[in-house]
Amino acid sequence: MNGSPVLFALDALTGALFLLTALGVVATRQVLASLQLFILQSVLLAFSAVLLGIAQGSIHLFAVAAITLATKTLLIPWLLRHTVSAEVYRTREIERVLNIPSSLLISAVLIVLAYVVANPLLSTVAVPFVQVNLPLGIAAMFLGAFTIAVRREAVPQLLGLLAVENGVFFAGVAIVPNLSVIAELAAAVDVPVITLVIGMLTRRIHARLGTTAVGQLASLREQ
Amino acid sequence: MELAGILIVPLLASGFALLPVGRRFAAPVTLVASAIVLGLAIAVAAEAARTGQVAASGEWLTCDGLGALVLLLVAFVGFTAALFSWGYIAESVKHGRRKNIQLYYSLYNLFVLSMLSVPLLANVALMWIAVELTTLLSAFLVGFEDTPEALEAAWKYVILTTLGAVLALLGFLILYWGSRVAGLEPFTWVGLVEAAPRMPPALLWTAFLFILVGFGTKVGLVPMHTWLPDAHSQAPAPICALLSGVETTTVLYVILRLFPVVGGAPGLDARPWFIGFGLLSVAVATLLFIHVRDFKRMFAFSTVEHMGIILVAAGLGGADAHLGAAYQMAGHAIAKSFCFFAAGVTVLGVGTQEITAVRGLVRSSPLAAIALLVGSFAIAGAPPFAVFVSEFVILKAGLASGHYVVVALLAVLVVIAFCAVMLHVNRMVFGVPAVPEQEIRAVTVTLSCKVTLALAAIPLVIIGIYVPAPLYDLLKAAASAMGG
Prior knowledge:
The complex is a heterodimer. By secondary structure, chain A is mostly helical. Chain A has helices at residues 5-27, 31-56, 59-83, 86-89, 100-122, 128-150, 154-175, 181-209. In chain A, helix 5 (100-122) runs antiparallel to helix 6. Chain B is mostly helical. In chain B, helix 2 (22-51) runs antiparallel to helix 3, helix 2 crosses helix 19 (469-481) and helix 12 (295-316) packs antiparallel against helix 13. The longest helix of chain B has 34 residues, at 148-181. Classes of the chains: A mainly alpha, B mainly alpha. At the A-B interface, helix 5, helix 6, helix 7 and helix 8 of A face helix 5, helix 6, helix 8 and helix 9 of B.
């Protein structure tokens, strides 16, 4: 019922690569490279969903995989290209809040923290896939949130947000393999809408202010 | 049938506002739609007050006392803000494009729709989506004025509250996981309360913390509140009324829903977390009041304060404290939306949000001055108003249950907040202008803004003095849904 050791080993490998892409999104400087890493991460999420679908015989997980591929590897890059101007798209981020070595050091702490958070939950279930997906999903969430905190450019902040969402779904495919079809469809709509709204906001900020370094916008604060 | 109607009417109005014929009629159609929704919501609330439960359209839509209270508040502020928008938006977009106005009303209806669906959707996963949509649909309304500040506020608002919602999503997935372990099929609030004792406590507790922090961001709990004063001060006044008056309440409603779920599990106690987050929010908001320079920002901090008070009341536990919490939710939504209408009239008149730039308002615009004064008294908790009564009920319930330290801290903070708000407003209304010969602009207030202020003042004044029996029953039903 819980699948063969081969599937489990493949899922563990996918999980490791998934975490690496999350680290890549933290560390990379090129806006375009962040996007490519995000696409790769989404492919790995879909692959994990397929593996779990085979192992648990759940048709819902194949649907999740298909939706993930359609929205996150095709629709989102297309939406970004059409809402955000090419200039933003090719930006190389010079300034960041923290340098890359310190960021990676903090990332390591966050990964340990994710295991601390997940640990009490792991003892309650016997499904082996949860042992891989839950802590790694939470780790990817934390890394995505950290990405938002250290980035100053609009598009990398958005990609950090989407990486958090990927982390939630990476954990989600293992812990709730049979969430209803409605919720899947809604999730499929949610992510593109986030991208569309934030992408259009980025365009307006670029048009109005001539920059997308949203981290430097600081006219609103307590005196 | 009413419940489905409440969701369909704003959807139709939103579509209509985008049509080419909607150009001139977007505002009146929105007003009519929100009036119909308010009528339906009153019917639903009356029903819920009588029976405790209105089930409609089978398993998808449902509404109990607490849901009906939130529904009624959203519908009420949705209606008054629509009326206020008519004059305000036309005035503030005078030179802008008409297209913008159509987009404004279309998004306005969708935003209100998303808030209305939060208390109505029976399935908790769908409810999460509704909460997420409240952010995404209001992002452009927050940045509507297109100033650098408004866009900055909109950016912070979307990024931080969406991040919070995604954190909460993991919480809901873990909650679903726990409910499956406990053998629960439909993922509803009623089912969760019932299944809670059988859930593994570790799952329930982790889910609770993720949802509290995630949705707490959207409620504006300290320390996740940083986006709130920006968004709630830069959006157009009617949108501020919705954001501050009811959007925060709608999300707080979800957190309050968790209270009986967590309370049902053996060995778990959410109360210290509610009281801790609540008191911290009240304390930080109170300190920020003293130095605030922008009067819309001041009302935004007041929202952080009130969300904290309601959370403390829920955490104190017991039927009386929960009744106080429900009453405070109602009093806050009505008074805060009124405050933002008053602030909107003032901004249109004086053209600034700086507290120091507004002096002697009572001479230049008596209407704005009186509205600002009445609204501030109501929100700060002066005696004849509802907020005073609810705070009194909460403090009394806290004393009765032996939470002396919490009550003492809360009482001191509330008094400081009251003094700070009234000091600022007093200077704005009665102060002497820095440059006496400065020409006093004759402030023209559009008819729709005047009517809104008059209409919104009716419940503002009444519910502090006299709570009609059906409303009292509704508050009781809401309190019992919180597990009081």
